[in-house]
Amino acid sequence: MLSRLAAERATGVLLRERGTLYLADGEVVHAESPATPGLDVLFAARGVLDAEAWREAVAAAGARRRVGRFLVDSGRISKGALELCHLGSLYDAAYFALGPSSTPTRFRYGAAHWLGPVRPVPVAALERETVRRRELLHRIWPDPATDTAPLMRSRLAAGPSVPLRQEAVLGRVDGVRTAADVSLALGRPAFHTLVDLRRLAAAGLVTAAPAQPPPVPSVLTQPSDDPDVALLRRLRDALEAL
Amino acid sequence: MPGIDECLLEAMTLPGARGAAVVDWTSGLALGTVGDAPGGDHETTAAEAAELARLAAEHRAFAPAAGSDWSEETPVEDLIISNRDSYHLLRFVRTTFDSSVFLHLWLARSEGNLALARIRLGEMAGRLVLG
User: Fold this and answer.
1) ipTM exceeding the 0.95 mark
2) Residue B62: per-residue pLDDT
3) Is B32 helix (H, G, I), strand (E, B) or coil?
4) Do B31 and A85 touch (CB under 8 A)?
5) Residue A148 CB neighbours (<10 A)
6) Is B40 in the A-facing interface, judged by CB distances under 8 Å?
7) Confidence band, pLDDT 50/70/90 cuts, at residue A198
8) pLDDT at res. A238
9) H or E stretch at A86
10) pLDDT > 70? residue B58
11) Alpha-helix residue ranges (DSSP H) falling in B59-103
12) Which residues on neighbouring strands pair with residue A13, listed in sequence order?
């Protein structure tokens, strides 16, 4: 479907289970996924652009769908920073959007994103990169469990050889957070987190948390008698019998 | 104000420049390329250069002495590789958001000036992010 849309130079939005791709003249200009932090989160993480700056930019240029251009022209960010960050987030969201889907894909013609074009990516390049990324993860550590499950640290102590960026990921692993939560907390592209988690899994430092067992009926778990009390009673009885 | 393309085109004005790229070293993706690549394939070159950049950025042996605060930033400035006919210069780009990006410049050894290229590439990396 995507290659057909590219061939007919379509403009609109492709809606898939795990993300959306915006096309303009058959090229991908923007991508979003619930699994990845958006451009706003990435730029807010180190205080480059706060919520107020985004509101101002969307109010000024959202209707014209030129918010990206406005941010650069008004001096809030450099053109290079916008291109690097946006391109990174586009490939990041596309990796998840183009992943396996259990719902039908839909395309809405004509829709455009308020950010406006930054650096359009050909559909073929995006699809090729998505396949390459899947293979990269598989080469590092073939078990995909850490991609989606809640994560926990193993009992192995992390040695001094854990690189800084992996250490930051490891620090956010708490038995509850998933890879997507860790990415959001760090303001870092989600695929980067998947790569670091596979490396940490390969080093035996992180595993997927086991699924919670169903709760056992409380009748079965209540002890009929406290074993310690029973032991103490037997000891007392034995002492008294001496 | 330079974007990715302007930055790469400027890199190509250096004496002996054969090709240049902006690469993400976590994924191995080339975010932008210009000129030639060794073997004619920018994507393969980017993936291979990314492996090398990752090792340099992640191993503490190459970090500056303890005490300097490089938290979450790459501790290495650049990597230089030379062979019989060319130089490769990899310059890490410090960004104002979380990233793992470097500039890769491929120079012909006969015409290239490594010292000049190293200084210029550092300036370009700074301008790319700060404008």
Assistant:
1) no
2) 84
3) strand
4) no
5) 13
6) no
7) very high
8) 76
9) helix A79-97
10) yes
11) none
12) A22, A108
CATH T-level topology, domain B4-130? Beta-Lactamase (3.30.450)
Measure CB to CB from residue B130 to each of A78, A83, A132 and give the nearest one.
A78
Residues of B in contact with A166 (CB under 8 A): 58
Which of the two residues, B13 and A156, has the higher pLDDT score? B13
Beta bridge partner(s), residue A21: A14, A31
* Yes or no, beta carbons of A189 and B98 under 8 Å apart: yes
Top pLDDT among A163 and B71 is at A163
| Angle between helical axes of B4-11 and B114-130 (0-180°, round to 10) | 170
Phi (first) and psi of residue A163, to 5 degrees: -60, 155
Spatial neighbors of A106 by CB under 8 A, at least 6 apart, are A14, A15
Query: Which residue of chain B is at minimal alpha-carbon distance from A73?
Result: B1
Q: Compute the distance between CA of residue B27 and CA of residue B17 in angstroms, rounded to an integer.
A: 25
The tally of CA atoms less than 13 A away on the side-chain side of residue A163 is 22
Distance from the Cα of residue A176 to its chain's centroid: 14
Mean pLDDT of A139-162: 89
